[in-house]
């Protein structure tokens, strides 16, 4: 019998993947409560708690007891404006959220990383993702699931030109390089949340597509 998460902490609920994941969580009858801090208000729901503000400032005040935490935080260099600002979100904020989730009792963290994440990568983006993965592992999670999706496919409120241009090509690529629809990714994350394996699991994009079908 799978260990079903009932109380969930979610970061990044207004992002492309996060909004699909939140919708899935709120439609799961076994989920009793979702705490999703965001910068802009979410649609109200009986099982949703939605503190509004900057996540870094909200983290210390978050309270409750949680089974699992999902981290869908992420930006781009263009959006962030500098390497330092990018690192502040995709590294520092991710680690701070994960640490707070651990303090609130979560035993399973599921985090969205990136295809090619490697702390030794010569590419800044994948190097930061790899460094973040390594430091999440050092936090001592009983269960840590790292999802490494390829190009995300789905309509954003604020379209990213680079993603829009790359999306058709990504659908022609083989294996883990093939683009993944955000609805599929959200389903895969939920199925991974039901797994009882302890330790660290890294899930590449081709496996995420299979899990999310």
From TrEMBL:
InterPro entries, per the entry: Epimerase_deHydtase (IPR001509), NAD(P)-bd_dom_sf (IPR036291)
Chief location category: membrane
Domain NAD-dependent epimerase/dehydratase: 8-99
Key words, A-Z: Membrane
Coiled-coil region list: none
GO cellular component: membrane
UniProt subcellular location: Membrane
PANTHER family associated with the record: OXIDOREDUCTASE HTATIP2 (PTHR14097)
Protein name: Nucleoside-diphosphate sugar epimerase
Species, as recorded: Stutzerimonas kirkiae
């Amino acid at each position: 019998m799978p260990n079903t998460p009932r109380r969930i902490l979610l970061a990044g609920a207004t992002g492309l993947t996060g909004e699909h994941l939140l919708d899935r969580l709120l439609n799961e009858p076994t989920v009793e409560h979702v705490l999703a801090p965001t910068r802009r208000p979410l649609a109200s729901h009986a099982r949703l708690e939605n503190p509004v503000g900057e996540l870094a400032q909200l983290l210390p005040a978050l309270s409750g007891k949680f089974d699992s935490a999902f981290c869908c935080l992420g930006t781009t260099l263009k959006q962030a404006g500098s390497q330092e600002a990018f690192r502040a979100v995709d590294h520092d904020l991710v680690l701070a959220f994960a640490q707070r989730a651990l303090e609130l009792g979560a035993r399973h963290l599921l985090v969205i990383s990136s295809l090619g994440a490697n702390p030794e990568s010569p590419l800044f983006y994948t190097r930061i993702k790899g460094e973040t993965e390594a430091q999440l592992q050092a936090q001592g999670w009983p269960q840590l699931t790292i999802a490494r999706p390829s190009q995300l496919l789905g309509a954003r409120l604020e379209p990213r030109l680079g993603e829009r241009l790359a999306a058709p090509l990504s659908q022609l690529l083989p294996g883990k390089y093939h683009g993944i629809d955000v609805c599929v990714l959200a389903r895969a994350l939920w199925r991974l949340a039901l797994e009882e394996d302890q330790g660290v699991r890294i899930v590449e994009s081709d496996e995420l597509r299979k899990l999310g079908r």
